[in-house]
Amino acid sequence: MPPATRHPWTPALLGLILLSLIPAFVLAFQRVSYEQSQKTAALVMDYPAVTAQARRFGLEPEALLERYQRLGVNGVALYEDVVGSLVQRGEIVLKTGADLLADVPGAPVKAQNVYLRSVKPGAAEALPARYTIPTRTVQAAGQTWVEWPTDPTFLPTGPNTELLARLKAKGLTVVYRPYADDALREPGADWPDVPFILFNGDEVIGARTPELLSKINERLGTRLPALIEATPQRGLDTLIAGRGAARTFSVNPSWQNRLDPLTLASKYNLAARERSMRLLYLRPYPTIGETEALLARTTELLGRSGVRITEPVIAPFQDNTALRLLSLVGPLAALLLLGLSFPLMRLGLLVAAGSAALAFALNKLDPFASAALVAAVTFPALGLVLRRHRVTDWFLATGLSLAGVLFVSALGANKDSVLGLEPFRGVGLTLLLPLVLVGLSFLPRQDLRQTARDIYNAPIKLGDVVVMGLGLAVFALVFLRRGNTTGASVSDTEARIRQDLQDSLVRPRFKELAGHPLALVGLSGVLPGYFSALLILGGVVGQASILNTFSHFHTPLLISAQRCFLGLAAGLAAGVVIIWLVKQALRLWQTYGGRPQPEARA
């Protein structure tokens, strides 16, 4: 491997990077302070699901809810009432026209229509004013009925105020779930005084009509909308702007029933601790015992993680534009230094310019997001381009990667990215491009055409093909498994190991556990030929994974730091052990079967 070029600008560019680290560090400190103040979560139980479970076992829903409260539940999700709810509570009577004709032959009703009559005075008569559906009043057998040309059973009727008051009196945080219906005259006008609104379906009320969405935004007032994990809702970004949101984690009922309570509790703990979920939306299991096991374990794990179970008070993250502008200098200086340090300087500058252009194109010329991506692809490569001939060079590479972490956080963390609304664009490049940058720096200091001829004319052995094939297969596996939802599956054993680790501590990433030892072995030079270069490239994946870890801005910075330093410590220890083992194995390989040398005689 050719040595890097030490350009005369190197000290000045390193100085610029160090100076730019000061505002980046201040921004990181501000982010940590914000995240530490937000370590709270509410355990919100779905009230209709609790009601269904209670009736199945002959219990009163509120009594069962109190039982769950003692195990940590401090919130409840209450759906808006519909006409059918009033029928179930006996406040109104609903009959089809056909049934009413059967009871009162000759009544002035139509068989295909639906008729409502009040049991609670005025209940049925108050409904038509809420909707644009035309109705009329008819008399049958001396009773007053409201005629509907369509079945009104599922029309929303506002909150159950009596139940709501009782739940609040129990100290529960109420999450209100309103229904959308085009027939409503004034949606949102009767929302109760609750801290959170959780919309149903794949869009918020009014998402299709700008005027209505503006009204909903106004009527939301100080209530915060719930942002459901992995469930994008059209129009929600409008409601969140200037207000913030409560990140919410929920598990699909069918998936929940395939998980045991301890596994599900681990997922809720992970969501609160590592993904800043503030509302943990729970549904009971089919049995009360399983539900109690889930709640007991979830409460225990949240306590270990330092997450307080209380009503979350959520403030939007505020970034500092002036400090971000000062931080922007560091990644650009690092990219220029990288290009100048290539043995082929013109190639290095061309690759650096292409990397910058790609970052700005992916982020639609947003200077902060683009510079964050520049930092994420530059710093993992910079250390191994500057120096890569002894084991101690790994510490330089790691130090530069950790410096890049501060720039990624300073430039990429803002109100939307912390909420998970603005994903980090170019995540795949953070693993691929550093490999390309370091690999191109291996080219010898000669004409590229000569290098191409040398590569073409180089004799290839079967062993070379096998090694290259294995290397490509490993990289493909790492690249495919770069996210939470990828095409590469996780084995049951690995899933169990992951769960055990994440329940006891922050789980380090596998790419770092594997990448750091590879870099150390490659830098040690104990392996002959091109093996060291291949291992160093494997080590680039470990460095890139550090920056990739911190590109998930919804994960608290200290959690990412714990994951990173655990990976570094474990990788360093494994690397030292593996270097010793490789040396012993090579010595055994070279000496096994040889005849012992006779001792020299005096």
UniProtKB/TrEMBL annotation:
Keyword Transmembrane helix: yes
One Pfam entry name: DUF5693
Keywords: Membrane, Transmembrane, Transmembrane helix
TM ranges: 322-340, 368-387, 394-412, 424-443, 455-480, 530-551, 563-582
Name used for this protein in its record: Uncharacterized protein
Organism of provenance: Deinococcus arboris
